[in-house]
Amino acid sequence: xxxxxxxxxxxxxxxxxxxxxxxxxxxxxxxxxxxxxxxxxxxxxxxxxxxxxxxxxxxxxxxxxxxxxxxxxxxxxxxxxxxxxxxxxxxxxxxxxxxxxxxxxxxxxxxxxxxxxxxxxxxxxxxxxxxxxxxxxxxxxxxxxxxxxxxxxxxxxxxxxxxxxxxxxxx
Length: 171
Prior knowledge:
Largest sheet: 6 strands, mixed
Strand content: 25-35%
Helix content: 25-40%
Structural class: alpha/beta
């Protein structure tokens, strides 16, 4: 049995970047969730899953929770990426929103600051971001013409705590 697998679902590349950093540092493979056959999960003892947040929901988490229920003996670690700067209680809020009482829960959960890449976003996501930006500017009294600018806030240093955890579990 292989010790560890990193899975990811990424729309604009930030979750994939974190997944590849984690896999590289852990000496294991990273696979896009869309490319994984469920039966392959049997080969791993520890599974890390990461994806972006969309309206507070971790992309693809419903499938991961089903698998967590089907493979309860495995150690599951989940990370989410987003653009909201982490503040007191935010990581816990994301966790509680995505893993309600009575549902399968990962052994550990992490939130990483990532970014926005408008060039890689689909039309619907760009329009949604524009809408939220206009709503926010109206609330603050600013003019309704905001320019959408891509930003990369990802940082390899953010994964150090997760790496320490999986190294202990992979022994």
